[in-house]
Amino acid sequence: MVTFAIASGVILRDPELFRRMQRHWASGLLKFWGVELKVVGVEHLDPASSYVVMSNHHSYADIVALFVALPVIPGFLAKSELRRVPFLHAALRAGGHVVIQRKRHESAMQTIDSAAAQVRGGRTVLVFPEGTRSETDTVGEFKSGGFRLAKAAGVPIVPVGLRGTGAIGPTRSILFWPGKVEVHVGQPLTAAEVEASDFCELVSEVRQRVMGLSAMPARPADPA
Q: What is the CATH classification number for the domain harbouring 37?
């Protein structure tokens, strides 16, 4: 799919073709897996606006469900380790996704500044602030990158809660199963609210909203 989409975009001289085809790819996968998708709250989003979307993360199916559910096709904030996956590096580049090196602070900040410019230019970015997939039905601590991006870009943050993706695509399995997935889109925090909020308070508020939308509790803190 990646090879076909990139080649088609080059032949047709349409640099946005790959981005549009991501939705068709995702929709086809959900049908192939036998997944019933329910979307709630999408009316909160204006397709003509740009956002930083933040969601809980339990499965590779999360990205598939969000590509279909959201009215805008997002790029996503991805860890640099994903570039090692065959074909995925090309897909990340062609899809306009933002790769961040989390262990190199200076490089990460430069990437966020670059991503902020893209968001101000009209791009919506999807962030999984937990940083990795959760293996339990809980919401982990949130990392700061997405919040720094939203503040730098001056755009609203949209909390999203995913339900059921962990059941159809368990973390330690390469198989996907039929089932029901729900995407609950919350009321965005406005750009003014993002700008005015204390950083720690903003992280806590968004996490609480994601927990409510996903109907999942907080993951217990690791023992010191």
A: 3.40.1130.10
Residue 16: inside a domain, yes or no? yes
- State pLDDT tens for residues 73-130: 888 776 666 656 666 656 666 556 666 665 565 666 777 787 788 788 888 899 999 9
SS3 content of the chain, % helix, strand, coil (to 5): 45, 15, 40
* 117 falls within a domain: yes
**Token pair in block for residue 109:** 């900040």
pTM exceeding the 0.85 threshold for the entire prediction: no
Domain coverage including residue 111: 2-214
Helices (H), the chain: 2-11, 17-33, 61-69, 88-94, 105-120, 145-153, 165-168, 191-196, 199-214
